[in-house]
Automatic annotation (TrEMBL):
Subcellular location as annotated: Cytoplasm
Stated name of the protein: Quinolinate synthase
Cofactor note text: Binds 1 [4Fe-4S] cluster per subunit.
GO biological process: 'de novo' NAD+ biosynthetic process from L-aspartate
Residues bound to iminosuccinate: 47, 64, 135-137, 152, 221-223, 238
Keyword terms: 4Fe-4S, Cytoplasm, Iron, Iron-sulfur, Metal-binding, Pyridine nucleotide biosynthesis, Transferase
Length: 336
């Protein structure tokens, strides 16, 4: 493939959200990406739900909190975010002077989409004496309307950091919200949003797996529905699930979250068996269609042309930064 000029590359990104270019199948993309990291002083941050090749080429793989913390601390000039849009946007909010790249701008999130800013603003106005805690899986507009951001690994501590009589709106994930209501005993007002991936796990199929693997531990992400969480032996963020799988003596695990995480579980515990929980459709495992929009080819092209880039309005960025800073401060206080 002949190289294209930057003007044509920008047009391609505008048209499709990514660089729709053929990549020479003879190229060793792992090598090329490593070379570009050094030449450009770039860091590749990847979420556990990315495809295995992307995880293998990443400098850091983590959950949403770990990725935000890493993005805040990095001294790289370019942050290449292998994840979804709200994650790359969070990195940009924390690093206004760095170039933040996302291999496919259309890698969105059904949970973030379930909170449209205008409707959420009205909802907030109906509860004027409430503070807003928003899960990091939301747009910058929702972050700007929030008091504190949380992730699944610090949500309990964030809720408990507020005075017991403080009224709280929790958005946008109703499943994580009701899990937290139970965990903390706080009666929060919940926004009615959910993740399309975690909402479709089949309890019936999980229980059938449990019959066939009676010794297996069921481990689940708190974005799952309540009836699924009820049967879980452990509930946690992706990093929490990975750590549990490493530390628990069980030899088999039924993993109720997006399947990308199985790559690290299998790598760090090759002697254990990880069974992906099936969704309520014909599939045997559950992939996030947004996360899986990124490919190694798109990652390579994005580093080569330094496109697509996350751009943000500065006023919005500053407003969205405050609740993220509060989250990072509280997390540091709890040693998270
Ligand atoms: P964590 O990795 O923070 O647990 O979040 C899961 C998720 O759904 C990210 O989109
Ligand atoms: Fe969003 Fe769910 Fe995909 Fe995570 S798994 S990016 S919450 S749609």
């Amino acid at each position: 493939m002949a190289d294209i000029n930057i003007g044509v590359a920008k047009e391609k990104v505008e048209a499709k959200g990514f660089l729709d270019l053929e990549v020479d199948p003879q190229l060793d993309l792992f090598n090329e990406i490593e070379k570009m990291k050094k030449e450009k002083n770039a860091i590749v941050l990847a979420h556990y739900y990315q495809e295995a090749d992307i995880q293998d080429v990443a400098d850091y793989i983590g959950d949403s909190l770990g990725l935000a913390q890493k993005a805040e601390k990095t001294d790289a000039d370019i942050i290449v975010f292998a994840g979804v849009h709200f994650m790359a946007e969070t990195a940009k909010i924390l690093n206004p002077h760095k170039k933040v790249l996302l291999p496919d701008l259309k890698a969105g999130c059904s949970l973030a989409d379930s909170a449209p800013p205008a409707a959420f603003k009205k909802f907030k106005e109906q509860h004027p004496d409430h503070l807003v805690i928003s899960y990091i899986n939301c747009t910058a507009d929702i972050k700007a309307l929030s008091d504190i951001i949380c992730t699944s690994s610090n949500a309990k501590q964030i809720v408990e950091s507020l005075p017991p009589d403080q009224k709280i709106i929790f958005a946008p994930d109703k499943n994580l919200g009701s899990y937290l209501v139970k965990k903390t005993g706080r009666d929060m007002v919940l926004w009615d949003g959910a993740c399309m991936v975690h909402e479709i796990f089949s309890l019936e199929k999980i229980m059938k797996l449990k019959v066939r693997h009676p010794e297996a531990k069921i481990i689940a992400h708190p974005e799952c529905e309540e009836h699924v969480l009820k049967v879980a032996d452990y509930i946690g963020s992706t990093t929490g699930l990975l750590k549990f799988s490493q530390e628990d003596p069980a030899k088999e695990f039924i993993v109720v979250t997006e399947t990308g995480i199985l790559h690290q579980m299998q790598k760090s515990s090759p002697d254990k068996t990880f069974i992906p929980a099936p969704p309520d459709n014909g599939c045997a495992c559950n992939d996030c269609p947004h996360m899986k929009l990124n490919t190694l080819e798109k990652l390579y092209l994005c580093m080569k042309y330094e496109l697509p880039e996350i751009k943000m309005d500065e006023t919005l960025r500053q407003a969205a930064r405050k609740p993220i800073d509060r989250m990072l401060e509280i997390s540091a206080r709890y040693g998270l």
